[in-house]
Amino acid sequence: MLCLGAQSAMAQARIGFVDSDRLMREAAPAVKAQQRLEKEFEQRDKELQRMAQELQVMQEEIERNSLTMVESEKRDKERAFNELNRDFQRKQREFREDLNQRRNEELATVLERANVAIKQIAEAEKFDIVLQEAVFASPRVDITEKVIKALGETR
Hints:
Layout: H1 4-12, E1 15-17, H2 20-26, H3 28-65, H4 71-124, E2 129-131, H5 144-153
Parallel strand pairs: 1-2
């Protein structure tokens, strides 16, 4: 149980809240970071989609013609399918790893800028504490919109 002094101090404290998820969806630097990632990985994504389509066509051809194929032809087609599938799996794994690494780099930069903006707002408006994670936050303590606006103004 809190003592009266602690309750009084908490009642006097100025608290703010920032919705990090919303910030990462709507803030200009976060949107630009997402666009950079999409552009950076667009060609590799298209290549993976092309390979997946090629694998699907190969598999359908093997299934459709397996009964009429000579055993050696069937074995060659299955070997080619398996090699392409391994290459596809490897490229897909590398794509995910590279994308995750770049996303983390971009998010770290955005979070760094957001934290600077949050600190400036907190100091200017005399907040005692600003939370970024909460089970519940009243809209009256939510300063997310101010942070998004501040990030949009900085370059």
